[in-house]
């Protein structure tokens, strides 16, 4: 599905900013509607508004390791933790799907390599790839695998905690960015509603349209730059 992982919050924000902004700055409802077409094309063809799946897979991988670790801590093997999986309401659908897939592989006498490959497919992140390489070696060598799982969890939790702290720090900046981008639109909308004659010259003269165009371009640049500044990725 093309729209399954679309970040609709960003879509709505950009639709309001570019669509409503075009209407306010150029006094053209048609232009405001036409601006929405490129946004739709970007969603459909370029996946420009796709949600960052890295954090979802990262969190899902931690949940998977927690399940494995719970069974290893009571003396079970890695493969036994798969066999003894029982889905519950507290577990995500992603975990249930990967565990059922691993169980099917074991039912057809799947190799350790097949199990590790399935994990990499379910969690397409670098951390999962490193883990499966280590775990595959540990299983084939009959080495205690609990240490590998515990150490991996420690590292992943530290990374997740760091990300959450940075995200919390940037939350205020993201709010300030949203206010700064939307405030000019709100001001123009207020003036148009209360005293539209003040903006008449900006909509009817060549110089006025040039000023409004220049102002809107600056506003767009400000939004793009601020979006880049406050955007962080867990893998970076």
TrEMBL record:
The chain crosses the membrane at residues 20-45, 178-199, 211-230. This is Tight adherence protein B. It comes from the Bacteria. Keywords: Membrane, Transmembrane, Transmembrane helix.
